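lol ok so funny story. i was supposed to be doing the assay writeup but got distracted and ended up predicting the structure for this chain instead. priorities right. anyway since i did it might as well share w the group, maybe its usefull for someone
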Amino acid sequence: MRFLAPFLRKGELTDTTRALYIGTQRILLVLLHDFPEFLSQAYYALGDAIPPSCIQLHNLVLSAFPVDAGIRLPDPLQPALKLELLPETQLAPPFLTDYTIALSTGNLRASIDQYLSTQQPSSFVSTFKDRLALSGAAEKSERDPKFNVPLINSLVLYCGVVALNASKSKTGAVKYETQSESAKLLRQLIQEVEPEGRLASSTSSSDPQLTLDRLLAARYYILSACANHLRYPSSHTYWFSSFLLDTFGDTSTEAVREQMVSPIVSLIDRFAVVNSFDIVSSKQLRVLLERTMVSKPQPFGILYTFSQLLHLHSSHLSEQLNRLPTDVRGVAPFQDFMSSLLKKTIVAGQTSSVPSSVAVQI
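and the output, tada:
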């Protein structure tokens, strides 16, 4: 994956690299079918190696769950399902790798622990968000990554684990607390990182794909890192699903919410349609939509969270759908797809089905 990553990130596959990609995809399929326990435990290391744009590869890895442990996946779209009531949400998933390695540089872990305990120094968030950009990013090629994605992944998971451990030590059970210091830190980072990307204004290009690459900002990577833990029922899936839904519903950050979930930007980002509208590439609906609209498999946690989002915020999403420009190619099929899901949500009180793939012609 580390060899393929630069080619996948640029979207330039020769016959040789395309064959290697197909072979890698088939290996992951074999692992998912025959060795799901291994794949489910190695998901974090693989997620670090797979570029965020390779949605189906991420879904293949995140769909694995330990069959030998006796876990049975409920229907994520059933009306009465409450993730917090499942006994599996009290159990943490096992790992094969140390997810805190990226935090060891510059004593970041100690700084994070101090801030979570004392909320000091007050400048921690503004200082830390600058660490998310790679050193010398402004001098890198336009298609090279500008942000330290492994650091973002490590930070997001570490905050979730700290919150879960604190909840369990306090109440004896795993519980999501909206005012936990970990949740507030992640929410503050999502609010304060620049939605266009810190380096987006440093260069200019008429190439839509290059423009799109530059707009893959830290906010998108933070939300994508959260979505990487929406897997089979576990304490991590429960906490990050609750966090994403809570962040979406936070009316005190309406401006950020608009940037996170605007379907017009989701459509533009997903299909690289660039027009005169402002492109904000980091938003929650995009992260969930792009992982739902690709071919199967889709992870249990992704479908559950997407279903809950449609159920809880159907009126807001309907309002956003009405803002879509009618003169942009591909909008009509997208509107039909979203409207059908929202109609089922309003009428039945739930999302009864989510297609495995959507035929949207651009």
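The CA atoms of residues 184 and 315 lie 26 Å apart. Residues 149-171 form the longest helix (23 residues).
back to the writeup now i swear
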